[in-house]
Amino acid sequence: MQFDWMKIPYSLLTLFIVVNYGFLLGALIQKMGARAGRRYGIPIWQNYVDMLKNYSMRSSITHGAMFYLGPVFRLSGGVGLLLFVPTIYGSYMFSNLSFAGDLILALYFVFFGTLGMALGAGESGHPHAAIGITRGLSQVSTAELPFALAVFSVALQYQTLSVTDIVAAQQGGMMNWTLFTNPLAVAAAMLAFLGTMMRPPFDVVVAPQEIPIGPPTEYHSSYLAMMQTNRAIFPIAKIVIYMNLFFGGADSWPVFFFKVFLIYLWSAFVGVVFPRFRVEQSIRWFLIWAVPLGILSIVLV
To answer: What is the pLDDT of residues 143-178, one digit of tens each?
Structure first.
């Protein structure tokens, strides 16, 4: 099959749109959470200021090659996940670099960035790095398990690994969405979504209020800016997967922006309402509630 080189500039345009929407949406969600706690919150443009400031800085500190490759792997996971999944259904410009088996590739990209950051943190030299890696990978792996089960259920349901074909099968009305044709798989995936977003109550690995260490302080200058950029890209890219698999995809940018906002709001709402879990509590929660739903969805399909 011959590669269509014209898709590259269109994919870069998609990346540009998603980065800006991710920065704006992230700030909006933070402001909404702050208002729920009777605080004012950050300005909408604050993420742009932080990113530009960090990209303009340089550092002479060295911790080894893998320490600095960690943010590169993290950003590569977010960009790869976005570019190999169609963004707008039925659009040649915004189909990106998707192909027939892109669902399996998407699953690899979801976990790629996390493993890269684990390798980077392992070379930081911090005495607590190993503890953070263990806690982070344990929780993320457990959260990804029900999502993987839900994806397998959807692939069995539609008899394809093509995200484009799965979106096509959901056209014709809202009742054709996987949300209504396979609700157990969607329930398992949406519970897993809470953990993979690393927001409360599943953010104890980061614990920004209690632990004055970790990636935001261990990394600096342009390396921290790369992580901030991925923080805008990766959640949106992950939501695009959920939107295409379970909620009928998007056939235009306004529909895309609306559905992404609603799915993102699900994690923000739960984070505001519920207190934080410890790592062992979150792992137990996923195994008790989310994983059985994923298994049951496969059995029923």
So the answer is: 889 999 999 999 999 999 889 899 999 998 899 999
pLDDT digits (tens, 9 = 90+) for 36-75: 888 888 899 998 998 899 888 887 777 778 888 888 888 8
Report yes or no: 102 and 162 within 8 Å, Cβ to Cβ. Answer: yes
Strands (E) in the chain, as ranges, are none
User: Could you report how far apart the first and last alpha carbons of the chain are, in Å?
Assistant: 33
Q: In angstroms, rounded to a whole number, what is the distance separating the alpha carbons of residues 89 and 82?
A: 14
Q: ∠ CA 147-150-156 to the nearest 5 degrees?
A: 145
Those residues with Cβ within 8 angstroms of residue 108's Cβ, 6 or more apart along the chain or in another chain: none
CA 78 – CA 196 distance, rounded (Å): 13
Cα separation, 140 vs 283, in Å, equals 9
Find out whether 102 and 219 touch, Cβ atoms under 8 Å: no
| Dist CA 85 CA 260 (whole Å) | 15
- According to DSSP, residue 230 is labeled H
Rounded to whole angstroms, how far apart are CA atoms 260 and 21? 10
Which amino acid is located at 77 in the chain?
G
- Distance (Å, whole) CA 35 – CA 168: 39
Residues of the chain with pLDDT under 50: none
